Amino acid sequence: MTYHAKSEFMRVMMQRGFLADCTDYQALDDALLEGVVPAYIGFDATASSLHVGSLIQIMMLRWLQKTGHKPIVLMGGGTTKVGDPSFRADERPLLTPEKIDENIAGIRKVFTSYVQFGDEPTDAKILNNAEWLDGLNYLDFLRDIGRHFSVNRMLAFESVKSRLDREQSLSFLEFNYMILQAYDFLELNRRYGCLLQMGGSDQWGNIVNGIDLTRRVLDHQIFGLTSPLLTTSDGKKMGKSLDGAVWLNPDMRSPYEFWQFWRNTTDADVGRFLKLYTEIDVEECDRLGALDGAEINAAKVVLANAVTTLAHGAEAAAAAEATAREVFEKGGVGDDLPTISLTAADIGDGISIVQLFVKSGLSKSGKDAKRLIAENGAKMNDADIDGAGVLITVADLVEPIKLSAGKKRHALVTLD
User: Fold this and answer.
1) How many CB atoms lie within 10 A of CB 24?
2) Could you tell me where the DSSP H helices lie in 135-249?
3) Is 112 helix (H, G, I), strand (E, B) or coil?
4) CB 229 within 8 A of CB 202
5) For the whole prediction, is pTM greater than 0.70?
6) How far is the first Cα of the chain from the last one, in angstroms, to the nearest whole number?
7) At 245, is the secondary structure helix, strand, or coil?
8) CATH of the domain spanning 254-328
9) Which pLDDT tens digit goes with each residue over 260-288?
10) Domains of the chain: which residue ranges?
11) Are 270 and 289 in contact (CB under 8 A)?
């Protein structure tokens, strides 16, 4: 449908490509014009950091606050104990309460870079759904909440149907997840006046469930808004790179590696990513995205700097760009490259070049490293490596060694 937004938030969502669907465009737009709208997105604590696959949702919360509304970050301390089955081929591994708390502490750090917390009307709030889920009485919950859910309707949701169609197991534990997420929205509305849930389009069924439950129990009107499930122009899932997830916490993915991920964006994605992941004007995003040849590389640097500045600060972005220039343009080592430090005991009589490529994260396995070396894709100090049998000794590490996998991925090895 074509809808002309009146509120600033809805305009941003539509112009920058955040909007996939909305339960009621007109009524939500009106609510956004009337006053501060508290809105939430849920994040399950399955790891100690979020990765760039969650960044579109984080940016939605940032824009919500920038346009005068209140972001609520809901940590799934309770629902993580169950696991979201949405569009998964298998059941998530169950985590201990201690591990969940540890993950939540790590994830909290991400959000301080993107939203402002405090007690003002538009200041962000972090909540944990264990606050209301941990103390639930099962029989009371079945009577008061469970009676509002139709199993027939739940089976029809695409996230469940896709699992059943492939004849893959869907446990009763996971089946309860959508009821718990619906209950989250009800409780957030009841306790904090939350009017809007946002999420990826795979969450549409869960969001609609929460809206329906809140209408039945409290007779309140609330809303849902989803963003597109993002893939890169070559069809890959957003958030992954050759060597695994691109985490947002600097202790899990260095600012340089993070910067480099964005610098390596394919040409066709530059304009779209500038709109979604930076605050650069839409017109400028379109101009930069339309460049080609050598000029598009300058646009990728703009993208990498802007996204890294938001995540890690302007100094980290500048240092990453300087390192990249040192490594790529001048053939130097660069101060900000990912570094592994070895002791003389680690090296012993010699450590194989294959082991170094694995330890540095440039190769996933010894087999991967051997293949890279055999195909001349691996370099040491910018020179070809003479086979997988090369041994590095303590004497070789008097000066740091630079390892390269292809033209864009590098690491330093130093002697501690």
Assistant:
1) 15
2) 138-144, 151-156, 158-165, 172-175, 177-192, 204-218
3) coil
4) yes
5) yes
6) 61
7) strand
8) 1.10.240.10
9) 899 989 999 999 999 999 999 999 999 99
10) 8-227, 254-328, 339-415
11) yes
